[in-house]
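Thread: assembly with ligand

MN 10:42: here's the input set. Chains plus the small molecule as SMILES. Want everything predicted jointly, not piecewise.
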Amino acid sequence: MTATGLRTLAPAGGGLRQTLADSLIVAWRNLKRVPRIPELAIFAILQSIMFVLLFAFVFGGAIPLPGGGNYREYLMPGIFAQTIVFASATTAIGVTEDLHKGILDRFRSLPMARAAFLAGRTVSDVVYNAGILVVLMLSGLVVGWTVHTGLANLLAGVGLLLMFVFAMSWIGVWLGLGVPSVEVAQQVAFTVLFPITFVSNVFVPPQTLPSWLQPVAEWNPTSTLTASLRELWGNPNPYASTAFPSQYPVLVTVAWFVVIVAVFAPLAVRRYRSMSR
Amino acid sequence: MKGGLEIAAVANGHAISAEGLVKVYRSRKSEVRALDGLDLAVDYGTVLGLLGPNGAGKTTAVRILTTLLRPDAGRASVAGLDVVRDAQALRCQIGLSGQYAAVDDNLTGRENLWLFGRLYQLPSSDARMRADDLLERFELSDAADRTVKTYSGGMRRRLDLASALIGRPRLLFLDEPTTGLDPRSRLGMWDVIRGLVREGVTLLLTTQYLEEADELADTIAVVDHGRIIARGTADELKSQVGGERIEVVVHDPGAMTRAGELLSGDHGGDVNMDQHTRRLTVPAHRGVDGLVQVVRDFDGAGIKIDDIALRRPTLDDVFLSLTGHAVERAEAEEDGTSAAAPAAAGRTT
Ligand SMILES: Nc1ncnc2c1ncn2[C@@H]1O[C@H](COP(=O)(O)OP(=O)(O)O)[C@@H](O)[C@H]1O
Ligand SMILES: [Mg+2]
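BT 11:07: finished. Tokens for the full assembly:
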């Protein structure tokens, strides 16, 4: 091992191979924190399970499903979707921490691929949330949720969920790079996310909402994602109306995915670049 | 490609050079001119100490030279590479240890070094070997497999410096490497830095302490309000300031004015008075004799002395003599003897 052998000159922009390698290294680093701070994952899961218990067993009896059907089976896809949407808060907090603890400066002073910090973050978010989903799905099986339509549809639903993790991750990165502290990241995320997940079909059929809120709830990406999962898996899926998002939830969900990524990925990249201004 | 870089570096002559750097931080409410025409030149294999009070623009200068920030005007190059145009190639030549230790709390020391080594584009096995070497060198071997959360302030600092060295950079930037360290860790850090310098790295180091610049730097550049206001060797600066100072603390705040008159009459130099601490400082041209004289004079005038001492010039004295005004401390910052800097401190304060 010689001194000159050690100093390798990276290609100026970071070719595709280097981008991939560096992104995976950053993702590895992000995922390392999961076993190091197990509380993070444990409480993310407990929070979702708490919602299941609360709604399935405390309020569940009081929430009638139009057209009948098992409420717990109705609830679980919503819980999966809600968990995914909330995951963007974790992303934002992680990014803000990297920014303010100086880790991001260290990364930026290294000859690593420019896209690796952002790409690595989205990769680790997808992997982490895939793990969380597995645990939640097993819990769902315990309370009576199930997939009626076979493996292909199960995987299609999971694919849709993970696509959404990726999209929400960009929102989280964008937010995380723009706030002055971890506390603010937390507050902003939850202030925005609570209405998004509650004005939806996650816990109650949209019919039960005030009529002016119904279109909002129907077009809400959390709702279209939830409705897609219910449709794909053969879980109860009472329609609020004949509105487009209720008729074609998968299509609208994919459209949401495209729109969110198309808007927030460039915004996040722009914020990242403007850090050197 | 490497050969090309060497040629560019030789053509430029300096390891680090900056001309007329300007940086203005703009926000909705205010505009801060952090750098206002900063010029620098550092030769290969030498150590430049960038000395200045809190808020002078040291960190901003380091951030520009290490490609983290773009200048608004002026140009700078490091190892012959332009900080804006050749940023990525430049990053292959430098190591940076920022003002606050930037290491990942949730990784072990070894994992941190491996991570940064990989991202420095070292092959995995080289990164691992290099990490082992550095852990040993910085006396972190025993703690290598503990998460950094459990490290002391001094250990974090050492790991941070080790991270900066992972790619064997030819040029090293250390932003206040000992701020927040206890005196013993500070001496240890000085030793480490001296060792690196012996190995031939070019070093730019910022500090708020004249003593530290004196210990480590070949040349010192004094920064104030984003400009270099003086440069030279430590001895040159000190003789400019006038060597040692007499420092008197009087008992009665009301006697400050009279005490000031006596001191300036006796010693002819600028008297620095701090009403709040009842402290007066004046250049000591005649060493201990001068001290004795002050005691006699004050006794004769009936001014009671709480404390009197002869001490070496500090940054405050350099400032007073160079600018005619004392250091404006924008905010109370941790002095060198306080406990470790908070891990989550802001980026640039
Ligand atoms: N990100 C920033 N936004 C606004 N002002 C800043 C920022 N960073 C530094 N400053 C201001 O710029 C000036 C120089 O700061 P800095 O370079 O950190 O000085 P030093 O490192 O010498 O203490 C200070 O007045 C500081 O408050
Ligand atoms: Mg600073």
